[in-house]
Design brief:
heterodimer; A: about 110 residues; mainly beta; 9 strands; B: about 120 residues; six-stranded mixed sheet; four-stranded antiparallel sheet; 10 strands; about 50% strand; globular
C-alpha cells in the first residue's frame, strides 16, 4: 500500500487558518468515511484529533475540523496558535482491511 | 483513562528476533481491535498490523507479512508482536494503539509511548 500524500510543510501566522490535504485513492480515502487525523509533537506519541472524516473526540478544540471530497481529505486548523506547531498525519481504512497513513505534514506557526 | 505501556524493544542484529509487548490498563481490552504502528527515526507513521478483539482475525502490512506475528492474551490484557528476520529498515519506534467506540471504531484513539527497536550489527 502506498502512503497517502500530504504536503511536507504548511505554515501560518497566529490567528490565521491553514488547511492540510491528504490524497489517496478510491481504495482508501475515496472509498470509506474512515479518515482520521493525528497530531504529534516531537518525542511524543501521536494524539488523535479527528475521526470518521469530520468528527472531533471530546477534549479536542473546535478549531480543528475535517472534511473530504472524492479521494482527498482535509484538516483545517483555524485561529492558529503556537501550541498547534507539530507534525500532522492522516490515516484511512483500506479495501484490504488494513490501514494506511499519510506522509505527514509539519505545521509551523510563524 | 486507558493506559498502554509497551516493552521489549532493544538492539538486535540483522536476522534476529524480538517479542514486543503492550500492557493495557483502565481499559476494556478484550472488547477492542488493537494495532501496532511504527515510526522510523525522523520518518512518518506506518501501520504494521492489527488483531480482532477475540484474536480470530489478523491483518498485516505487506512489508512485514510472514516475518511479524501479532497476538493477544485477553486474560492478561496484553498485546504482542513477534518480530523475526529483522532488517535494518525495521528500525523504528513501535507503538501499540487501540480502535474503540471513542474513535468511531476506525481511528487509533489510545496510544502507548512506544518501544524502540534498533536493528544493527
Amino acid at each position: 500500500q502506498s502512503a497517502l500524500t500530504q504536503p511536507a510543510s504548511v505554515s501560518g501566522s497566529p490567528g490565521q487558518s491553514i488547511t492540510i490535504s491528504c490524497t489517496g485513492t478510491s481504495s482508501d480515502v475515496g472509498g470509506y468515511n474512515y479518515v482520521s487525523w493525528y497530531q504529534q509533537h516531537p518525542g511524543k506519541a501521536p494524539k488523535f484529533m479527528i475521526y470518521d472524516v469530520s468528527n472531533r473526540p471530546s477534549g479536542v478544540s473546535n478549531r480543528f475540523s475535517g472534511s473530504k471530497s472524492g479521494n482527498t481529505a482535509s484538516l483545517t486548523i483555524s485561529g492558529l496558535q503556537a501550541e498547534d506547531e507539530a507534525d500532522y498525519y492522516c490515516s484511512s481504512f483500506t479495501s484490504s482491511d488494513t490501514y494506511v497513513f499519510g506522509t505527514g505534514t509539519k505545521v509551523t506557526v510563524l | 483513562e486507558a493506559q498502554l505501556v509497551e516493552s521489549g524493544g532493544g538492539l538486535v542484529q540483522p536476522g534476529g528476533s524480538l517479542r514486543l509487548s503492550c500492557a493495557a490498563s483502565e481499559f476494556s481490552f478484550s472488547n477492542y481491535w488493537m494495532s501496532w504502528v511504527r515510526q522510523a527515526p525522523g520518518k512518518g507513521l506506518e501501520w504494521v498490523a492489527n488483531i480482532k478483539d477475540d484474536g480470530s482475525t489478523k491483518n498485516y502490512v505487506d512489508s512485514v507479512r510472514g516475518r511479524f506475528t501479532i497476538s493477544r492474551d485477553n486474560a492478561k490484557n496484553s498485546l504482542y508482536l513477534q518480530v523475526n528476520s529483522l532488517r535494518a529498515e525495521d528500525t523504528a519506534m513501535y507503538y501499540c494503539a487501540s480502535t474503540t467506540y471513542r474513535g468511531g471504531w476506525y481511528a487509533f484513539d489510545y496510544w502507548g509511548q512506544g518501544t524502540l527497536v534498533t536493528v544493527s550489527s
